[in-house]
TrEMBL record:
It is an enzyme of class 5 (isomerase). It comes from Guyanagaster necrorhizus. It comes from the Eukaryota. It holds the Pfam family Rib_5-P_isom_A. GO terms for cellular component: cytoplasm. This is Ribose-5-phosphate isomerase. Pathway: Carbohydrate degradation; pentose phosphate pathway; D-ribose 5-phosphate from D-ribulose 5-phosphate (non-oxidative stage): step 1/1. GO terms for molecular function: ribose-5-phosphate isomerase activity.
Length: 262
């Protein structure tokens, strides 16, 4: 039987923010996950379940020969519970399309990622992808990074180096408020899927005019595993808006307003 293209979530039960995440995710899937795509990267966060929701709605025939690569524990569980085929990036180092969320996206499609502490695997899957697409709600659509997302740039570090990297950030990299991310329902720091810690480092507007430069400097600090600044990687970013439309920003500067899909 052909799938019915509608959300399994009853209409009207989503908040405005959740609806905007869903709109972005659905539009990105409709535009970028095509029948010929066999290996698909699935990002992390609260927007990505809507990506998987729309992929599932493409139906059994479309999905039966596909492999889905997760960026962490959450997306692995999502892939399995949705009945999709699971693979890993060491088996599939070339991915057709990766779709992922973002904490903030600037005019040039540079973005902050790692709000969910998954940015190491997320960056590997973004780099492995022939096409990397971002999906987010309207709050993430900014001109400069660190505008609305106040925690700053997530930096994954090996545990024994965290104090040294914090000192480097405070003293040499102009991020005096960089802090170790603490867990909420556990005493002590957040531990990533890779067994590492995360530092959140806010940067000034001046530094965020050239996020690649600051990313390169942070990456050079010994003990840093990965930086949650993804520069010059995304082909397009989709933002769900409060009025039901979707804004698509493309690499090169083109901006489109897309009516909501049904
Ligand atoms: O980078 C991420 C996880 O490491 C997420 O993609 C990012 O935090 C966005 O999440 P959400 O869709 O919940 O806003």
């Amino acid at each position: 039987m052909e799938p019915v293209l509608k959300s399994p979530i009853p209409a009207g039960t989503l908040t405005a923010i959740e609806r905007s995440k869903q709109l972005a995710a659905w539009t990105a899937v409709d535009q970028h996950i095509k029948p010929e795509h066999r290996v698909i990267g699935i990002g992390s966060g609260s927007t990505v379940p809507y990506v998987v929701e729309r992929i599932v709605l493409q139906g059994y025939e479309a999905n039966k020969d596909r492999v889905f690569i997760p960026t962490g524990f959450q997306s692995k569980e999502l892939i399995i519970s949705s009945g999709l085929g699971l693979g890993d990036v060491d088996q599939y180092p070339t991915i057709d399309v990766t779709i992922d969320g973002a904490d903030e996206v600037d005019l040039e499609l540079n973005c902050i990622k790692g709000g969910g502490a998954c940015h190491l695997r997320e960056k590997v899957l973004a780099e492995a992808a022939l096409t990397f697409i971002l999906v987010a709600d309207y709050r993430k659509n900014v001109d400069y990074l660190c505008t609305n997302f106040k925690p700053g740039v997530p930096i994954e570090v090996v545990p024994f180096a965290y104090a040294k990297v914090l000192r480097n950030l405070h003293e040499s990299l102009r991020s005096p408020n960089a802090t170790l991310r603490m867990a909420v329902a556990k005493a002590g720091p957040v531990v990533t899927d890779n067994g590492n810690f995360v530092i959140d480092a806010p940067f000034s507007r001046e530094d965020m005019t050239d996020p690649y430069a600051i990313m390169a400097r942070i990456k050079m600090l010994t003990g840093v595993v990965e930086v949650g600044l993804f520069c010059h990687m995304a082909k397009a970013a989709y933002f769900g808006n409060q009025d039901g439309s979707v804004t698509a920003k493309w690499v090169g500067g083109k901006v489109e307003q897309i009516p909501a899909c049904q």
